[in-house]
Amino acid sequence: MKVESMKCKCCNSENLNLLYEGNDRLHNVQGEFSLFTCLDCGVVSVRPLLSSGEINQYYPENYISYPVPIGKEKLTIKRLDRQFGVFKRRKKIERYTGKRHGKILDVGCATGVFLKEMQNHGWEAYGVEPSVYAAGVAVDQLGLDVFKGYLNETKFKEHFFDVITLWDVFEHLPDPVETLQIIKRILKQDGKLVITMPNTDSWERKIFKQYWAGWDVPRHCHIFSPTAIKMLLTTQGLHIERLISFTGMLGAIRISLDFWLQASRFSKKSRQLMKNVYYSSIFRLLLYPYILVSTMLNKSTSMTIFASHDASSRT
User: Fold this and answer.
1) Which terminus of the chain has fewer CB atoms gathered within 10 Å of its CB, N or C?
2) May I ask the CATH class of domain 2-313?
3) Contact in structure between 219 and 58 (CB atoms under 8 Å)
4) How far apart are CA 109 and CA 159, in angstroms?
5) Cα gap 60→24, rounded to integer Å
């Protein structure tokens, strides 16, 4: 099925092909959606694209990306695991941007856990978060400077930030081009942009197909391959300095298995037994070699891009 009446938000092509049809598998909110591949730039996008008012119901307070502050985790092992996760993010930023301090903006900062880690280590931290609930946690419980709303509603000064991050946020943007234009304006000339997003070239996408966690309709509006995101960044005067994989592998695999299991014909008891297996520590250990290899080859569900202003476009 080819749809000629819709345009790709990233390259304006009308050459779109139907990939999958589906619904909200994460929270089971009603709605029917379709995923289309742009045959010109390779971006996969969801239709219909919902307005900010319509999409709110798909982000309940128990949404997976709205965790409680790390200090409030009841289980020590989970608290340590989450603390190690934000530590890794900070260290990757400091290593690959070459910056140890400065002004950092986290777009879609959720409950502010990452920003708090940066603030605790000398960074001047700012956040933007459209969820009233999540932003409230960041401001009221962690004392962070977070704008409650969308990036296009902010009034940051030009060339203000040393680093801008979007952790598992870029795929949620209904208009990636507009967002990149804003980012380019408020990022310093020597600033760094860090984006983590699903990778449509990943092995898990091929393994799980329509049940892949990276689709997550309708929350994920645009999903990219390394080639597709490089093309988009280039058109906006930005260039990729490094692409790595280091975060979210096990969680994405477990969610993909959840989605597959929901659609299976196994009995309720069998599904629960299988779920107990792949949420166990043994499964995590057995999966480690696969995670190690897929990470090294940048073939895991999640990829992280470090980008900067293209030298020829600097003003």
Assistant:
1) C
2) alpha beta
3) yes
4) 20
5) 13
Residue 137 DSSP label: I
Residue 4's pLDDT is: 38
pTM for the full predicted model: 0.94
Distance CA 244, CA 296 (A): 8
Q: For residue 148, which of 160, 162, 138 has the smallest C-alpha distance?
A: 138
Which strands form 2-3's sheet, in the order they lie side by side? 2-3, 16-22, 33-38, 44-47, 222-223
Strand partners, 20: 35
pLDDT at 205: 97
CA dist., res. 109 & res. 61, Å (int):
14
Per-domain residue ranges for the chain?
2-313
Please give the DSSP secondary-structure letter assigned to residue 170.
G
Alpha helices in the chain (DSSP H): 52-55, 76-97, 113-120, 132-136, 176-186, 203-208, 226-235, 249-262, 268-278, 281-296
Mean pLDDT by groups of 10 residues along the chain of 315 residues: 68 95 96 96 96 93 92 91 95 96 97 97 97 97 97 97 98 97 97 98 97 97 98 97 93 97 94 97 95 95 96 59
Task: Give the pLDDT confidence score for residue 310 in this predicted structure.
Answer: 85
